[in-house]
Amino acid sequence: MRILVLGADGYLGWPTALHLSAAGHEVGVLDNFARRAYDEELGVESLVPIESFETRIEAWREVSGKTLTPYVGDLTDPEFTTAAVRGFRPDAIVHFAEQRAAPYSMIDQAHAVYTQTNNVVGTLNLLYAIAEVDPDIHLVKLGTMGEYGTPNIDIEEGWLEITHKGRTDRVLYPKKPGSFYHLSKVHDSHNIEFACRIWGLRATDLNQGVVYGQQTEQTDRDPRLATRFDYDAVFGTVLNRFVIQAVLGRPLTVYGDGSQTRGMLEIRDTVECIRLACENPAEPGEFRVFNQMTESFRLEELAKTVAEAFPGDVEIEHLENPRVEQSEHYYNVVHTGLPGLGLRPHLLSNTLIESLFPIVEANSERVQDGALLPSVRWRGALRG
Ligand code: NAD
Fold first, then answer.
1. Confidence check on the interface: ipTM exceeds 0.95, yes or no
2. pLDDT tens for residues 77-98?
3. Cβ 141 vs Cβ 188: under 8 Å
4. What CATH homologous superfamily does 2-222+265-294+333-345 map to?
């Protein structure tokens, strides 16, 4: 298949592009390097150094003999987006290219407006490009489990059958997200469902859990193929952040009482889920939703697992929660769609956690201490 990966310079887009290329697909890679610009703005860097887009692409050609076709530009530019889709003529488009940090979207008004404009307008331009170039192109869009929030009923895969006053209908699952970033994904989901229902496009919305890990079979083949490893309180995902804190001898910072439960998955499962979704497309007109997670953990439990895996003393510290989120809540997620297509998950193990310790040790001099602690607060609305 011909697959265009949007956001291919990012944490997940890059290893996904390599995984698809290794599986024999013709892969195009698109990015506007916004993620590298947020690093400059926030004064932080990936813990593991990453190469330029050109060097990565060239390294993959040397290692695998396979070519990735690059497109550099911004999805909020409609001409660029349509030209890229027309130029590559994909069978499937994997869309990772959004501002993805909840804390970044909550910094102030300017960051909330940027996040929603970037994400919602970029996706809308993409829907128009697909409709114009070829409505048969399968859109595989990254959503997030955070779109659902923590409802007191089971979380179904995108849709809910309800009976109201004796009548029954199938509706999009009601969402109660926890940040302006998560809201941007909810808005995207509605726009994509609309385009499927009205224009007959085909799409898979992958409501992904929190990803951990840093290595895949392909990124391991050469240090120049490494993907990002973020540790800061804005972009670092929770398990990766705990591992870094353990190695540096800092307390693992759990927000609130740590009873919040989140769906999670390993990076090797992310790339495999995307391959499965691309190779098993949605039907024309179908808006298909999968909950892309393999296990749920309470944050407190996750911190204890990292502390136990680390061969030294580790303290766990509870910080006042900078976010506004429920503790001690019900959390039961249906996630049978991807296993039904053949996913065999890598469950969280001490071996995986232990494999991250040497990566952190080798790069520990790059850590900026100040970046580990949360500075963005959910309460109060700041003008930017
Ligand atoms: P990332 O920030 O590392 O990568 C996103 C990439 O998209 C970046 O390289 C960025 O430069 C690019 N981009 C952003 N806006 C763009 C635009 N307008 N035009 C072109 N390129 C643009 O993020 P990630 O962690 O790889 O996440 C990828 C996707 O997966 C996101 O949509 C995110 O919401 C979703 N997701 C991630 C996680 C996680 O734990 N990392 C969890 C759930 C969902």
1. yes
2. 999 999 999 999 999 999 999 9
3. yes
4. NAD(P)-binding Rossmann-like Domain (3.40.50.720)
